[in-house]
Amino acid sequence: MTSTTSGPEGSGPTELTGLTASELAAKIAAGEVSAVEVTRAHLDRLEALEPAVHAFLHVDREAALAAASRADEERADGTPPSPLAGVPLALKDVLTTTDMPTTCGSRMLEGWTPPYDSTVAARLRAAGVVILGKTNMDEFAMGSSTENSAFGPTRNPWDTDRVPGGSGGGSSAALAAFEAPLAIGTDTGGSIRQPAAVTGTVGVKPTYGGVSRYGLVAFSSSLDQAGPCGRTVLDTAMLHEVIAGHDPMDSTSVDAPVPKVTAAAREGATGDLRGVRVGVVREFGGEGYQQGVRDSFRAAVDTLTSLGAEVVEVSCPHFEYALGAYYLIAPSECSSNLARFDAMRYGLRVGDDGTRSTEEVMSLTREQGFGPEVKRRIMLGTYALSSGYYDAYYGQAQKVRTLITRDFEAAFAQVDVLVSPTTPTTAFRIGERVDDPMAMYLADLCTIPSNLAGNAAMSVPSGLSAEDGMPVGLQIMAPPMADDRLYRVGAAYEAARDAASEVPLLDRVPRLEVA
Amino acid sequence: MTAVAEIMDYDEVLRRFDPVLGLEVHVELSTATKMFCGCANEFGAEPNSRVCPVCLGMPGALPVVNGTAVESAVRIGLALDCQVAEWCRFARKNYFYPDMPKNFQTSQYDEPIVFDGGLDVVLDDGEVFRVGIERAHMEEDTGKSLHVGGATGRIHGAEHSLLDYNRAGVPLIEIVTKPITGAGERAPEVARAYVTALRDLLRSMGVSDVRMDQGSLRCDANVSLSPKGSGEFGTRTETKNVNSFRSIERAVRFEMRRQASLLVNGSEIIQETRHFDESSGETSSGRRKEEAEDYRYFPEPDLVPIAPSREWVERLRGTLPEMPWERRKRVQEQWGLSDEELRDLVNASALDLVAATVDAGAPPSEARSWWVAYLSQRANERGVELAELSVTPAQVARVIELVAEGKLTHKLARQVVDGVLDDRGDPDEVVAADGIEVVSDDSSLQAAVDEALAAQPDAAEKIRGGKVQAAGAIVGAVMKATQGQADAKRVRELVLAACGQQ
Ligand SMILES: [Zn+2]
């Protein structure tokens, strides 16, 4: 299916939907436009484009307009709750919301409306951010293409025959399609950064513990991290500051001040990276990477050098074991985290017809409620944790994790940030990897080390790949709680990239057919 | 399992085998809130009224450790002479069970918060037996299932089941002994005495209600037999949820006899969970351990490690109350008790009650005598614990006071206490309601004395002849005639006076 056209009758962003979040926020704050108008413009656009993109699982037009109206009232009263008040946002359907269902892309939770708000949702609401709806994702955030959603795949606005990445493909596609100027993702092995890379958008996995996980339906608790997504580094930074910060409801939340990421983004935008030491990870970006990705990465490194950064190559020898360790730790934790879906208290219940035992109902529900990838990982994790195998699998994987953390520590003793391609390839075609889990897993090769070590990482668009015209992402990694470095370097790179190009990157997103 | 045709005589068991015990005691802490959420920790509330997303295991909800529970765990460890871990973690114990909302229990596995201690247990004859403590760890309780429609309230045959999650997430401490060896014939008694001692200790610390009847103290008894002198441990069985102190003793004794009977017939002991039946006094096969699940323990990623600082641990050590054994020693000195008197007091579980009665103003000897003798007997008759009798130490102290003031005789006093036990109010209310008063009015007594002397001329003659011991018979007759309401001392004086002996 090709639903893109480049003609003027196609649906390009309107005057409002084409603006960045920071621009919208400024206009709303100045009273030039109301939050209701901004919200309505985005709702109109997404309603028109959704048949082609399918970024959302649930949109609540009335609730969004009501939230926008409250934001307008607060502005009128002179008490806007945050710099992003009145700006619309797309929320990944893995974060609980009391006013909308939270399905995690699974039949298991179809129609389930949680009795409580995630801390991220609560902070967004408190900041006056307007939640348009819940975005599509791979089931329980397991996947790299959004094809594992029980509710159908999301399509990449750059080429609707291609995937938008995953698991947070709904959020990245919503941004690239200009359906929303901001989005929230979650990143366990790359689920924010990889979709950002393949849709030409910005995505940040904050330091582990930087954003509360309370209300984030767990896939792998020691790796999961919610984070901000946007079309620009500055927008992403502003959103980061809204959702980050200590939460007493999450024991793993870091009790320290939030890094000054917005200031860092503004500083970076001046384009001066003198004194910043950038390490190129030797192990990433060589053989097996798509040519366009390698070219784009090399050009990005040259750009950083031209901005005054001191670029050196650093080796992280244990990164090659990251994928293997990840596919033991994440499934192990998921096998336990997903045990609660047993038909007893919420969600799907299959076969409760009075003839079956509790165990039979539990087992039938899990059989029919989970998709193949989720089952694959539950089985893998159950096996890895089994008595007699624990030491060889889970225990060994934890040791690798420690070694990877040490690689990062050694690297960050030499440099301020590390860079690599975000993904080895650009967006692949829908269906291309569904029968080859290993090929699918490789999409997260470069992003996984940061989850295992818990440090901060960003994907920022680095142009288009020559051979397919699809976006490529530059990954920037920083030490724990030094998230501000991502924004400084990312914003500097972004400014230089746009200055060198005739058209800003996102203006090149093809126009999608209006339904 | 083949039925045991003839169960072996206990003495025969001991001639052939040495018992090895392992006791696992679960204690529900009486913290205000649950282990990982802010819900109230209350027994007996309306089903599912003390729940939240965290203790219901809702998707996305996360646990936060109850600091008071950790503090209690450390204090319990210190009281049990344990080491306190410098660093420890929670772990997930994974298994599916409908009353466990997350289908894993947040517990501790190979990193318990306290370990390697011991508790000195006083046996019935005063001998002290030290029970080694392997570890004590923190975990959360499960909810409760109610199976409706089946004959026995068990899941088999039930039409449907109801789940109450009020108890889900209540803080538990599991205290595990080291293998208890060398107790020989006293193994069952050691088991009972250990759990009793643990109960007393935890109660004195105020960390738990320690009510076996409400499930806030639960005991699983592991029993195995080792061929006499071999030193080799046999296959063990685990008898679950034995519901009273006496049952622990009975269950251990039965298991020893059952296992011995099997072993001498060449049968093998099956490693399994067994249930104790209070009425038959026997254990029966439950879930077989070989069918039991692999719990797939791994460190709980939603919680951060706990690293109790040494300063904090020492500060907690300073908050420990007087330990029961210290208290026993002090009380013995203060009240001037012999070893035997102290033992009777402790065995009757009367120490706290007597102390409270003394605190309410009664002399120790009288307080002790009431609780250890009369009230213990009453508790036995009613089949309840002494502390469960509906008479308070203050009420006992009041009765003792009334006797001292001469307003009640001992016999009347017992009558008053019985009234209190029958929930008829305070001692003064019972006295008033029943019109109980000591007959000390000499004129009415004098008539009874004269009558008694006339009825027993021989006795009267002896008294007049100087044999004052003979007065007892006359006094007895007067007391009988006045239905015990007379002051026996005054009656005696009147008898002696009437016979010219004063
Ligand atoms: Zn709760």
Q: What features would you describe in this structure?
A:
- The complex is a heterodimer of chains A (515) and B (502).
- Chain A has 16 helices and 13 strands.
- Chain A is of the alpha/beta class.
- Chain A has a single domain (14-320, 400-499), classed as Alpha-Beta Complex (Amidase signature (AS) enzymes), CATH 3.90.1300.
- The longest helix of chain A is centred in the last third of the chain and has 24 residues, at 391-414.
- In chain A, 61% of the residues are buried.
- With 502 residues, chain B is α+β, with helices and mostly antiparallel strands.
- Chain B folds into three domains: 10-312, no CATH class; 322-434, no CATH class; 442-498, Arc Repressor Mutant, subunit A.
- Chain B has 16 helices and 14 strands.
- In chain B, the strands form three sheets. In chain B, strands 2-5-6-9-1-10-11-12-13 form a nine-stranded mixed beta sheet. Chain B has a three-stranded antiparallel beta sheet with strand order 4-3-14, with no helix packed on it.
- In chain B, a hairpin with a 4-residue loop joins strand 12 (272-277) and strand 13 (282-288).
- At the A-B interface, helix 10 and helix 11 of A face loops of B.
- Bound molecules: zinc ion (ZN).
Give me some keywords for this one.
heterodimer; A: about 525 residues; alpha/beta; Amidase signature (AS) enzymes; eleven-stranded mixed sheet; 16 helices; globular; B: about 500 residues; alpha+beta; 3 domains; about 20% strand; binds zinc ion; EC 6.3.5.7 (chain A); nucleotide-binding (chain A); ATP binding (chain A)
Tell me briefly what this model is:
The complex is a heterodimer of chains A (515) and B (502). With 515 residues, chain A is an alpha/beta fold. Chain A is built from 16 helices and 13 strands.
According to DSSP, the number of beta strands of chain B is 14
User: How big is the Rg of chain A?
Assistant: 21 Å
| Cα shape of chain A | globular
Biggest sheet character of chain B:
9 strands, mixed
Number of strands of chain A: 13
General shape of chain B = elongated
The multimeric state of the shown protein is heterodimer
Bound molecules: zinc ion
Question: How many helices of chain B does DSSP assign?
Answer: 16
Major β-sheet annotation of chain A: 11 strands, mixed
Helix/strand class of chain A: alpha/beta
Average residue-wise pLDDT of chain A: 95
